[in-house]
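Hi V.,

You were right to ask for the full record rather than a summary. Here it is.
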Amino acid sequence: MKSTWIQLSFVAAVAVVSGCSKSSENPSAAASQGDEASPQEQRGLSDGQLLQVLSTVDTGEIQQAQIALTKATSPQVRNFASDMIEQHTKAKQMGASLASQNNWALRPSPTSDKLQQKGSSTVSKLQGTDTRDFDVLYMQGQVEQHSEVLKMLDEKLIPSASSAGVKQQLTEARAMVQQHLTHAEQLRDALGTTGAQGATGMQEK
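Predicted structure:
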């Protein structure tokens, strides 16, 4: 009887050691579950969330352009800012109309929240920029922002669209962003901003 008890104890100990050994062989197994994308990220953004992302971009561009109208010294930069206000206001209204027609609520997401935080940071930096440095920082920031949004549209937003209306809105937004980027690059180069860092480049990543 004593021998049987010793044998059972030995088997149990081996089982425990074996289990610990397997865990040590793959220490990231449990942790990897926490690194997985959330269900929302796996599904992609909803139509309402996609439209909210576009609205956030539009709002940020309008706010920055309004500052540019008061601080920019270059007529070309002021004209660019006027175009930003006009075109992004129109785009924002079209997005709101599309959402209303389909009874979609504009819903925030980690993507729109991050854009809003970046936009607020950029506005604060532009407000605190000296007038003589403003044109350079504003235009370099415009290049950075439009490049980032263009990449986001191609890699995340357009592929997530589930309705034809939202996909069309995103596609039209992409064309506008590309046009703005090209214009911003031309103005930046004309201002001689080689090596300069835009307002967005000074943000925390």
